[in-house]
User: Fold Coproporphyrinogen III oxidase from Bacteroides sedimenti.
Amino acid sequence: MNKNKEVDVVIIGAGVTGLVTAFYLIEKGLKVLVLDKSDRVGGQMESIHEDGFVFESGPNTGVVSNAEVVELFQKLHPHCSLEIARKEAKVRLIWKDGAFHPLPSGLSSAVSTPLFTLSDKIRVLFEPLRKKGDDPFESIGSLTKRRLGKSFLNYAVDPFISGIYAGDPSKLVTRFALPKLYNLEQNYGSFIRGSIKKASEPKSERDKLATKEVFSVPGGFGELTKALKEKIKEENIRLSVKSISVQPVEDGWQTFLSSDEQIHSRYIVSTAPAFALPELLPFIDEKEMNPISSLRYAPVIQVGVGVTKADGHVPNAFGGLVPSCEKKKMLGILFPSSCFSHRSPEGGGTLSFFIGGSKHPEYLDYTDTQLEELVKESLCTMLGFPHGYTPDKIKIFRHERAIPQYEADSEERLTSIERLKEQYPRLFLAGGIRDGIGMADRIKQATRIAEEIVNLK
Ligand SMILES: Cc1cc2nc3c(=O)[nH]c(=O)nc-3n(C[C@H](O)[C@H](O)[C@H](O)COP(=O)(O)OP(=O)(O)OC[C@H]3O[C@@H](n4cnc5c(N)ncnc54)[C@H](O)[C@@H]3O)c2cc1C
Assistant:
């Protein structure tokens, strides 16, 4: 076997970021090798098919928040296509005082909802008049309380942040975690004024592709990574690679594998999580690496539930989120079968429970039996399944380091990444360590990195 290989680009990580980067580079004629320590592609994304049910480990849905998502699926057609969620996905439920309530979607529901206090509802009317903040490190919690009031923090933003970041609004910094919201206040002085102005600004045809709709793919996200893998071709992907370390050499990079193989490349793209970087990139000194590798991740336990007879107990909604002030052991429940086709046998349903998050890492220590009991109890108390009900399927997925938390240390991390980019222009540090944590963010980042490499070449 030839122990020395030569490619244009080595990509570390076969999650969606690595796969999309590889897909575009190969399309442009570059020679690419994707390396992953896992024995499968997909990283945090995996779909499990069992007896007519589809269970997602990792994301259940994405948002068409940028044109790059649509363009990727246009390229993958007909091997993999976008499945836009049914209109029911617009209904978001919030748990309060022992029941789920829909998050208001219009003026009359906003007036009548029991989720927010009367004084906060009145307060919102004056949001456009409120002074804009001047703390670039202000947390999402503080910003919400200042502009909208405490009940909006507790019953809208806190559950929304649990749903996206599994995080703590008092620790996540708005400028890094929700930059669009931060910019609305900074650029327009108000969320309401900014949203109205932005909606009336002219949009290019490309911008219009970002419909903000909720999406998945038929059969689950595993089909997306499968389609990408097929396009990239097996010979350009190496899985179960136990140890990888990279060193700069005069004309590029040398990647050393535990099998004694060496790969020479002009570019390196790392999509591995922050904590994996010191071992992968040992040439970066500790002072520069620490602010990156210390990025904190929230743990998430996901429990997929399949029922063959839903009997009206799986709501026609996107999901139900649980505010932390309600003190339940649940971050929320998604209802994928209400949003997408063929997720369960006819008449049945799938549910995805989320437990843990940065506020409750201790649930990682729950045994499978404890988690099953917790889910069974919640099916009865929160969704009205009969007392003692046992679902047909329960699948437990533990993500010890699931979602990166963009907290106050993000400034230092991003500065270090920028400095390294200046020092090593052919090294791309990518993945969730920057540019957003959602799947659409990953697709956009990967597309841009591929473009940058093609332009540099
Ligand atoms: C529970 C959960 C729920 C989520 N829900 C949503 C959602 O609803 N909507 C949404 O948009 N996003 C969601 N996300 C986020 C989304 O899944 C991620 O943004 C996306 O999948 C990350 O892709 P990635 O390729 O950047 O990273 P990863 O998928 O983490 O891929 C990184 C790859 O690097 C590999 N790797 C790590 N270390 C090494 C090493 N030393 N050597 C070689 N390879 C290595 C890993 O094996 C992995 O395959 C969720 C994530 C989780 C965990």
In short: The longest strand covers residues 393-404. The chain has three domains: 4-45+67-84+220-295+407-456, 116-207, 297-404.
